[in-house]
Design a protein that fits this description.
The chain is an alpha/beta fold. The protein has 14 helices and 15 strands. Strand 12 and strand 13 form a beta hairpin. Bound molecules: 3'-deoxy-guanosine-5'-triphosphate (GH3) and magnesium ion (MG) (2 copies). One magnesium ion binds next to loops.
């Protein structure tokens, strides 16, 4: 049985002595005995017992009055009244006080034992529940994840320590008063989920229409200076109608992913896109252009006699020149044009929504700019250009057409633009 403290109040000395030795067996954590209500109240406040067993009719203060006072500070304390038949007026008052039970005198010990055991069992359950609640809270706080719990009306119920920190809030009370909103901190960036409404909780339903692996959000930090990425995990607790939102931070992983992606698709030397990126984008762009009947053109450019540069100034300088040419081209194209290093000293441009005329104009402009530019070490050079567009009479791939045109430009003496 649970370790319990019992307060026993009885004015009749005979009964008091008889019951005291009996109760002593159950009150493992302490038995406190008083002979009237006043004494009982004093002992109650001093020892905070788990159960009160009290006579009703007593001098100085009745059991009823005493329990009324006890209930002012401890409304849930289990009370067992012991009463004689003749006390029926008190008995009605005891019922009103909603005591746990009453026993008629003379008291049957078996009955009393049953009552105590029942109360002790309830007490054990309540203690287990309380400690479970404390453990749950501790776990929630220990979690590295940001946890938010909502009730069925989507009102905030709980925020763990990571959550409190995230909002710069000291306590749960403050969080409730401020009514923190996750969606208000969301950032529209990359492929992250962004809600159609940043007020309220409708985003929770909205994000659940996505595949679980796409449930990623970015939140701005409290100082507004950094953005953190989180995987969103939502659990509905059927029984209690609660919704638990767990945000696991993946900022580090996201940074690694994007730096990895960068390494995969960006040319180390010139920081232009590389061939892998170009191949990927070319396929998408051609399909899109054909499907939508949109224009799409390509320019292939190759530095003329680049071997001479390497031979005369060395490979290092050759590298500097490649960077110089790349930067010059980058600064003369639109943001949605794709510029990539095809390999060696050959570059390629993919121009969406651009016809042959526009592409030729850009190539002519680039040719002039490169030819008139003074590169590091006072080096001047020229480039040859092949221009092509999708569609037309020949059913030939775009790249092949541009390559043929470039070959023709070299053949005709270099530093020129040839349209396929
Ligand atoms: P053409 O006008 O016919 O294009 O002549 P070219 O000399 O430019 O062409 P070729 O294909 O004969 O030689 C290309 C040269 O580019 C040879 C190679 O060493 C050099 N090259 C390729 N990649 C790099 C690089 O990353 N850095 C440097 N410095 N040189 C490179
Ligand atoms: Mg060349
Ligand atoms: Mg070449």
């Amino acid at each position: 049985m649970e370790n319990i403290k019992i307060l026993f109040v009885e004015d009749d000395e005979g009964i008091r002595e008889e019951l005291a030795s009996f109760l002593g067996r159950y009150a493992k954590a302490g038995l406190y005995i008083a002979k009237d209500g006043v004494e009982g109240l004093t002992l109650f406040h001093r020892h905070q017992p788990d159960i009160v067993i009290s006579d009703i009719k007593m001098p100085k203060m009745t059991g009823i009055e005493m329990v009324k006072k006890i209930r002012e500070t401890d409304p849930d304390i289990p009370v067992v009244f012991t009463t004689a038949h003749s006390d029926s007026a008190y008995f009605m008052e005891a019922i009103e006080l909603q005591v746990d039970s009453y026993l008629l005198k003379p008291i049957e010990l078996k009955q009393l034992r049953r009552k105590i055991k029942k109360i002790a069992k309830e007490l054990a359950l309540r203690r287990a529940y309380e400690s479970q609640k404390i453990i749950m809270n501790e776990i929630a706080h220990l979690q590295g994840n940001l946890l938010v719990v909502f009730d069925k009306a989507f009102d905030l119920l709980f925020l763990n320590e990571v959550g409190l920190d995230f909002w710069g809030i000291a306590s749960m009370d403050e969080a409730l008063a401020k009514n923190v909103m996750i969606a208000e901190r969301m950032v529209k960036e990359n492929d992250y989920f962004y809600p159609s409404e940043v007020k309220g909780r409708s985003w929770i339903n909205e994000i659940q229409t996505l595949d679980p692996h796409k449930r990623i959000i970015a939140l701005r930090s409290l100082d507004g200076e950094s953005v953190h990425a989180y995987i969103v995990d939502i659990t509905h607790v059927e029984e209690s109608q609660h919704t638990i939102v767990a945000l696991s931070e993946i900022t580090k992983i996201e940074e690694e992913r994007s730096s990895y992606q960068k390494r995969v698709y960006i040319d180390d030397l010139t920081q232009a896109y590389n061939r892998a990126m170009f191949d990927k984008e070319l396929e998408i762009a051609v399909k899109k252009a054909l499907k939508e009947g949109a224009e799409l053109s390509m320019i292939l450019l190759d530095i003329d006699h680049f071997k001479h540069v390497n031979d005369k100034y060395g490979h290092m300088t050759g590298d500097e020149i490649l960077i110089g040419v790349s930067d010059l081209v980058k600064s003369n194209i639109r943001t949605h044009d794709l510029f990539a290093r095809w390999g060696g000293e050959e570059f390629v441009l993919l121009l969406p929504d651009t016809g042959l005329k526009g592409a030729r104009k850009l190539a002519v402009n680039l040719r002039k700019r490169i030819a008139s530019h003074i590169f590091p070490h006072d080096i001047s050079l020229t480039c040859s250009f092949g221009v092509a567009t999708v569609g037309g009479r020949e059913d030939m791939c775009l790249f092949k057409k541009a390559d043929e045109a470039l070959y023709e430009a070299k053949l005709q003496g270099r530093n020129r633009v040839i349209v396929h």
